[in-house]
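agent> fetching stored inputs for the glutamine docking request
agent> found them:
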Amino acid sequence: MDYQKIIQDVYEKVQPFAKTGKQADYIPALAKVNPDQSGVCLKTLDLQQYSVGESKVRFSIQSISKVFSLAVALSCEGKNLWQRMGKEPSGNAFNSLVQLELEHGIPRNPFINAGAIVVADVLLSHLANPEEEFIDFVRNISESETVNYNFSVARSERSNGYLNAAIANLLKYHGNIKNDIEHVLQFYFLMCSIEMNCTELSNAFLRFADHRKEFNYCNVHLTSSQVKRINAIMQTCGFYDESGEFSYLVGLPGKSGVGGGICAIYPQRYAVTVFSPRLNAKGNSVVGMKFLELLTTETKESIF
Ligand code: GLN
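agent> prediction call returned; pasting tokens
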């Protein structure tokens, strides 16, 4: 498969969509990002790497971090984690409060905000130095020592984070947050604020694509079955209330973030990351969705 040619062709084909949508502006620091950037990096299991556009420009990974925090939480808690959240698609927006109230503080899954806030609480309970240990793990799997948090993005999100604060309070009321709410929220926003480029994200997601290999990075140890199941949750819950649509159009497990990134994996074959900040109404990158739809159409490769 000539992936370089295919991703270049598909990159050209998605350019007419480049002006559709707008970047996340509910996080003040992200409203300032240049929306006219885009990049792609596809990396195969045999370590061939193919890139187009601004694949080395770092951006805010936002909810893509929820895959990394889930990996750490599963390594710490194993299946006990599922007493505190489900693994069903929510069918609701990533920051919805309604379902959480009806379901008595048990989030539907770890990839909506409520679930990821519980995951942040789990990490705070288990890790001696959560901030350092989490970033060390992300640096290790992305093969980049310079990946870091953006503290001003995290502060900017906290200053406007009324909805996430409401979610955290509801969780605490139902006994599903053990630590101090403010600490949990700050750690959650900090994980979202990590900045990475397409190449670094594809390196990291390749670990999940390679689920038959042992997953041992820093102090995070997962069995191949656990990695396979993280991929299953990406497939069913990775795009909030657009997860069915992504599965239908693209046919790969993946995870998006409101910074405009989307990572997807073809198990045992490749990891691919697309970045373009303009989002659709569900909070997913317009160009990212279209690019991946065309990629799996042109290659005739998907998990189906
Ligand atoms: N930090 C963002 C939030 O909590 C992440 C949302 C996202 O990327 N979908 O709202």
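agent> quick read of the result: Residues 62-63, 94-95, 113, 157, 164, 192, 257-258, 283 surround glutamine (CB under 6 Å).
agent> awaiting further instructions
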